[in-house]
Specification:
The chain contains 21 helices and no strands. It is mainly alpha-helical. Helix 13 runs parallel beside helix 15 and helix 14 packs antiparallel against helix 15. The radius of gyration is 23 Å and the shape is globular. The relative contact order is 0.11.
Length: about 500
């Protein structure tokens, strides 16, 4: 409980700062094409970063790191250097190719934007390319810190990073406009790198230019890229199809979609990620030591579902009011608020699927099923791309609502199926006491919210309605909150 509370506290402060950052962004840029151009460039950066597969390989490396450290202290750090060195060479090749063909890629991603807007996105993207190198290293550094149970480092740095983002945006916006966002993103990543490096140095890590190690079969390890490369390619297709389809929707839709997606990521990072982070490390260690994992699995799965129930109830009852408070302005009117609210509810549904799927994903990776996981995920991503193209082209914005939860559901199903193939398969009971209560509480929140929304004759002013909804929210979330407390109070 202490570890969880520390992580959640740090995440909470970082999330508040992130909220301030998003408020400033919306105040400055609204749902304009300018911010959409930045989001498009940022999307391509993330797509290219994923080509190096740093994050995916870092996840697969964690149980390998534990295995090497069990064999001999320090071997894990040496293997870490080998992986980083080889990935940086691979990343350099990718950057050179992508830099040359950036205009072509940008036309594929945002075909609905004008040629001038595409050129602006190309310029921003090329300046952001150093992000790739830093992110490769950072993804491995934070994974190793978590593997050593040095929890909270990423969360603390998240606060520092957002403070940098806010400061630079406020100081440079009036002179540099959207380029202030570019500078803040890059500077934040450099700060992350140096912070992680010195944290690892405290526990004995030293960077070395080494390329092989007798106890670490790097060829076998990198063969995981054969499976993950297919997944990465499928993910690129899904992201490109989704972004390209959105680019033909009315101006402002993509900006609102990205604002809400970023907000949903912060919600997941605050309420869900601390559970996933601790669970992965503990489960991996238990597997390496051949100990029972049943209790750990049941506890964290129930805890995650409970927290999701709290978030969903709060979003249903208070989401539109919160969005109006933080983003509502002349550049973000009432129709924007309502669209953002609907996007938020569907994103929260996606978080529920992805968080439960993450439990099975981490267990599958701990049992060395990473290759199978990423192979079958590829088909889930391609199927998601097909859904994105069909739904958005036929139903426009209405079709866009369903893309995130569909994608999260498909990915979660794959994680569950792959894990079930392991020797220690643990069952998931959808119909049990807690889950049924959670479903009933969610339905009750939905009925209460939309009964007030539909019935315009109810003589209650807005301020009174907010107080009523806050009270109802606190009542409905009391049960899942109690469940979480009972599960983790003795830790």
């Amino acid at each position: 409980m202490k570890t969880l509370l520390n992580l959640i506290s740090l995440k909470f402060i970082a999330s508040l700062l992130g909220l301030v950052y998003s408020i400033i962004q919306v105040r400055y840029f609204g749902a304009s094409r300018t911010i959409e151009v930045y989001f498009a460039a940022q999307t391509l950066v993330y797509l290219i970063t994923s080509l190096t597969q740093g994050g995916k390989l870092a996840e697969i490396f964690l149980p390998e790191y534990h295995r090497l450290e069990e064999k001999q202290k320090g071997l894990g750090f040496k293997a870490l250097n080998i992986v980083i060195n080889r990935l940086l060479v691979f990343g350099t090749i990718i950057i050179i190719v992508v830099f040359i063909f950036t205009p072509v890629f940008m036309k594929l991603i945002i075909p609905g934007f004008s040629p001038e807007e595409q050129r602006q996105a190309v310029q921003i993207f090329r300046v952001l390319l150093p992000y790739l190198f830093i992110q490769i290293v950072n993804s491995f550094y934070i994974t190793i810190l978590n593997a050593e149970e040095k929890f909270g480092r990423a969360e603390f740095l998240g606060m520092v990073n957002i403070i940098i983002n806010i400061s630079i945006l406020v100081l440079l916006y009036h002179s540099l406009g959207v380029w202030a966002l570019v500078i803040s993103l890059l500077l934040g990543k450099f700060v992350e790198f140096f912070f992680y490096y010195f944290q690892l140095k405290k526990i004995g890590y030293t960077y070395q230019s080494i390329w092989q190690l007798p106890h670490f079969n790097h060829v076998s390890f990198f063969k995981a890229m054969q499976a993950t490369f297919l997944y990465v390619g499928a993910t690129q297709i899904y992201s490109v199809v989704l972004t390209a389809s959105i680019s033909y929707l009315p101006e402002g839709t993509y900006a609102i979609f990205k604002y809400v997606q970023n907000l949903a990521n912060k919600i997941k990072g605050l309420f869900i990620q601390p559970f996933i982070t601790i669970f992965f490390t503990r489960y991996s260690k238990l597997v390496q030591k051949s100990k029972s994992v049943v209790q750990e699995f049941k506890k964290y799965l129930t805890g995650i579902i409970s927290v999701n129930n709290i978030v969903l109830i709060g979003s249903i009852l208070m989401g539109d009011y919160i969005i109006e408070i933080i983003w509502g302005s002349k550049k973000f009117d009432e129709s924007d608020v309502q669209l953002a609210y609907i996007f938020l509810l569907f994103n929260i549904l996606g978080i529920i699927f992805s968080s439960v799927g993450s439990i099975y994903r981490k267990m599958a990776v701990s049992h060395h099923k990473g290759k199978q996981l990423y192979f079958y995920w590829s088909f889930a991503q391609l199927l998601s791309a097909l859904f994105a193209y069909i739904l958005i082209n036929i139903f426009k914005v209405y079709g866009l609502y369903f893309i995130i939860p569909i994608n999260s559901f498909l990915m979660a199903i794959v994680s569950f199926i792959v894990y079930k193939k392991t020797d220690t398969s643990l069952p998931f009971k959808f119909i049990d006491k807690e889950n049924l209560i959670f479903i009933l509480l969610t339905l009750l929140a939905f009925l209460i919210k939309f009964s007030y929304t539909i019935d315009k004759t109810i003589p209650i002013i807005k301020e009174e309605k907010i107080i009523i909804f806050v009270t109802i929210t606190l009542i409905l979330i009391s049960y899942p909150t109690t469940v979480v407390y009972k599960l983790f109070k003795n830790e």
